[in-house]
């Protein structure tokens, strides 16, 4: 049962072949069996999940018309506030904090009857690409437990790829959904900025953050996308427009006549051999389905990484100022006579991890008087150039494509002491965030040199998210018929069973 | 060396002012969230994830606050920016939950305006133009209560207790350009400016403008330069100035303090000072270890404000008359003597009197009621006239009742008491208390006959044609009827009775 | 080669209210040269006449009506407080200058 797709599970629930309680229990059992190895979850809310499942079952029995994903279990990245459930953003500074409110995404999930099983591990405050920066220890890649699942939404990606959950939610500030999806062989989408409400999403970089869905298939991902997205008056940057028809697009999966642009700057040098090979093969598949492949030039992308590592730290230095030991979260150093100022500093020292501090200091520097124009100001202008590059490219192509990440999953510990090497892993995903557009990663096969999954990235203009699903579903179907079985069937067994 | 006198200061030094006024808007909800803004609510009952800065919460701006700020800008003759943004001002302080204040930096919503103020001097009326640099939107902080220590002040407190009800209340900051050339009138000009602002804001109905409750706060920048010099001196910024009188006192005090330092060849320190209401002096704030670097940047959670030109014009069309012009007009239209006009302004009853007049009351009568009897009761109760349970409509009704002869002035005073005591509208009080002018001729005639018998000599004089003597008899009759009679009717009946009609 | 001295890092840490050990200051200072070199690449491009983008979507004038909605209960508001007293957040003595 747990190896089915969410769409199949929903079908079984609708037909009365199973109940949400059974389905949820099966996943909770799977978590018990394998999460000791994977460490995808920071908190499992078995009681809450079963109660929610039971309520959906009751409503279904009474003949109520339910949302398509009602009763389907889900893993939630710990960056989203859920009322009464510990929410830490992977940081020690929030250990034990239970929000008194629900994020809009959580409200929407609850309204749709989706069963939230628990909160997944992540790089602290979503700063990182390997989940090693979590204050609570790393998550392990189900494909190879000595490797990282990517990040920052590594817990969510690992939960879905290890069949602990059929669906998960992540957030993507510089690639934090797409890169872990790529590294764990699943589908992940970063929707258009403003498509999914950020209300209740603990901010890392406000102008780049966006929550999005993970699934094992393009259709599952679309089903969750449709539940999450939509205008929210509580988020001033939320787009007031109908949600693109992503489910319909995932079901159609037709690329005939579609123009697909290959970004010159996001391939070749620096990309692992097997990554490039799977990417090239995927392009051929798309071409054989009737898509027209063109090459596009985005010269400013060369500076995207630099711009990102100024904008995100600048915004985070301000966003994370609220963690000050006064109103919630950790408080240390409150010895007799200590000042509020001293307690703030001691708490922020003790509560924040190395990477978070590094980025706060970098952002503080980039915004400080005398440096603003040279750093933050210039980065915002590079951002304009990147938006212009995309605009030009989208006049030549309906969607743009690249490998999602330059490499497959790397060993835990391999890059922790080399921040620049870690940052380079985001080179292909960051431009989407800077431009506020949407992107998807879906599995393109395994790299021959290490037998690890490779991600294929599709990008579309703002609020054209359905194009991702249309192209993604077509490629997914073509690859599935070529492979004969879903890619996750090739992953090693965990906890002694599949 | 002794403190220089004010006369000595102005003989040598030329003051330059800069005034920053913070106004709390009277919107129903906060600037960036939907919490209520009521003053004096129980602690932390008007807070939510947004104004407590809980992780994940996001601000959404209050449209009424934008409208009010534009109105303020227009009333201060400002230009309204077609494009303005919110910026984050980053600094840590426990009363500010996000540890940044959402404000506006280099793109304020209103800029380049002016306010003209007039002051009365021994050289006659003088006018000063105060130029406005900018008007921008921001949010208020929470309130801290300092526990322990000797004085309840921040210094020496053991710990503090924070109430975030005020955090996020919309604030508008009005910043002047530097104000030169006010000379010896500087303190008075500053006071008049703040008073004029207060009147303008009250007229716009965008703020309660209660300095004592902190909904209007003034920071005064003062520096001195030698008379004739073009080089600005070092300024001090005095905060905590909580009344119009304090504005004047604080500036005068700072001018003297600066002059004393400068006369001694010392330097004025650029610093923040706190005004002490009790002594009228300022006290240095704790000096910071290093200059603040606020690291302003555009708030990514809020989008630009780009008010349409048509909307701005619509708002401009709704601007009320400027308070100073209105005062001139009222003075002429109602023919109010200078002293009375001043009394009305000082007693803060101009609005209420005008409302009463607009409801049909005679201006002089309306003014007399509000300034006289009603103000007296308000003084006794130690409240403002506006806080009494009597409305312009009540006073208008009262004036009408007197004019119709249904009440005498004396009876009307009893009715005022009744209205203020919550007994209802004047007509209701009249009914409940059974107050009425005696116009039963039979009862009056009885009284007249009684009085004429008692004062037969006087009655005889009147009968003989000496009409002025009738006054004493009428007075006695009024007394006899406890003031409930209509004096004119008494006169008529009396003269008839004595055969001299 | 960019660099950031130990003292500059200490000043930034002060602004950011993060207490740092001597070792942390020195470490960060040594890492910053490389990081600053990488991010300083934004200065290689001729950016004359290029407008800055602060918001990825060109939204304007998003506001809400001036309507009061229920607040949190004080219990919920204070539920995460490290210390509280009389329905207020209790915090250590404040060394600031405001009164």
Please describe what this structure looks like.
The complex is a heterotrimer of chains A (498), B (501) and C (99). Chain A is of the alpha/beta class and 498 residues long. Chain A is 40% helix and 12% strand. Chain A has two domains: 6-301 and 383-490, Alpha-Beta Complex (Amidase signature (AS) enzymes), CATH 3.90.1300.10; 308-366, no CATH class. Chain A is globular, with a radius of gyration of 21 Å. Chain B has 16 helices and 15 strands. Chain B is elongated, with a radius of gyration of 30 Å. The model of chain B has no long low-confidence stretch (mean pLDDT 91). Chain C has a domain at 6-42: Histone, subunit A. Chain C has three helices and three strands. The longest helix of chain C has 18 residues, at 22-39. Chains in contact: A-B, A-C, B-C. Chains A and C meet through α10, α11, α12, α13 and α14 of A and α1, α2, β1 and β3 of C.
The run of helices and strands of chain A is HHEHEHEHEHEEHHEHEHHHHEHHEEH
Mean pLDDT of chain A: 96
Number of strands of chain B: 15
Number of helices, where a helix is a run of at least 4 consecutive DSSP H or I residues of chain A: 16
The level of helicity of chain A is 25-40%
Q: Which sheet architecture does the biggest sheet of chain B show?
A: 9 strands, mixed
Q: Can you tell me the number of structural domains of chain B?
A: 3
CATH fold-level assignment of the largest domain in chain A: Amidase signature (AS) enzymes
Oligomeric state of the chains in view: heterotrimer
Q: What amount of the residues of chain A lies in strands?
A: 5-15%
Count of individual domains of chain A: 2
> Average pLDDT across residues of chain B?
91
Structural class of chain A: alpha/beta
Largest sheet of chain A, in brief, is: 11 strands, mixed
Give the end-to-end Cα distance of chain A, rounded to a whole number of Å: 11 Å
Biggest interface between chains:
A-C, 72 and 53 residues
Parts with pLDDT < 50 across at least 5 consecutive residues of chain B: none
For the largest sheet of chain B, list the strands in their spatial order: 3-6-7-10-1-11-12-13-14
CATH homologous superfamily identity of the largest domain in chain A? Amidase signature (AS) domain
